[in-house]
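Researcher: Here's the sequence for the chain we discussed earlier.
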Amino acid sequence: MLPYLGDKYGNPSSIYGIGREARAALDEARDTVARILGAEAGEIVFTGSGTEADNAAIKGVAFANRDRGDHIITSAIEHHAVLDSAKRLEKRGFRVTYVPVDSYGMVDPADVEAAITDKTILISIMHANNEVGTIEPIEEIARIAKEHGVYFHTDAVQTAGHIPIDVNRLGVDLLSLSAHKFYGPKGVGALYVRRGVRMERYLDGGGQERNRRAGTENVAGIVGLAKALELAVSEMNDEAGRVSQLRDRLIRGVMDRITHVRLNGHPTRRLPGNASFCFEFIEGESLLLNLDMLGVCGSSGSACTSGSLEPSHVLLAMGIPHEVAHGSLRLTLGRYNTEEDVDYVLEHLPGIVAKLRAMSPFGAEAGPGEASCAKCEGTPEPLMKRR
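Model: Thanks. This is the structure I predict for it:
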């Protein structure tokens, strides 16, 4: 990225020398992302974030196809970038069906098909959930969408660079991703738009991104996105296996050492680094603060809404009681985590939980046998990290 933050600072829409240098870098990055996704270069639109990519896909398809219909289908556990876009469209006269999920956070393709009407123009189901890590049956839903002539979008922000993605194998028409989820820079994303999809542009202004997204491109960020994705995919098989082992070690350790705890999400169809739990009789916020004082970074629900006092909409949609959902903890493992990090958490977490339950008016319900840690007694998108 560094040359494009310094000497090669040109505007890629300009015809002078440094502009042509920037254009060449932009084209190379687009080719790289397209190759990795199994797409054509002209089908890649660079955006300012995964959120913008979701907004552009959902609103762009909705408004461009209003003459065909006004009905959209999504799930109850989508990221707020999708859910809030859908709610905004409802205020503009569109109708939205929010299909339910099971106790693992899994969408049933039959529910999606049952929701389709002759006015359905778009289905948007995430590739994997950002909170509980459940990987959805995207290929099957995409086949259903195609059979009914409905566009299909998937939010792949959590999966790009971590599990295989091929837009043709998945069968999607639109796909969103974000650079910082695979160790690229923050503030840059991309949207795959299959050739022939009718979509209005989300931002008005110049004719950048083949008139799909106005605004001077963030060349340095886009170069960083492409390189980070290339690196992540080149290491994906080995890294996914290593991180999955750490995840399973963490999950087993938590379940063995602490009572009245629930693993959230599907036990096997889940992201390699995702470990999400609900601890009864305590508040997730207190748990996060205690972990932070020990140098462990976690989240309670989505990192984007970690300041909210409301329990996760994902956990509630999975049927988890309101009071239990308040005690959620998500720990995400990545390329810099080790067995020592996992063991550090397992050494301290039981004692923190025991201490918080002892302070809770409901803690007595946990009963005897709660695991504890003498070293912790009296010690006050979410990367699990030791500082």
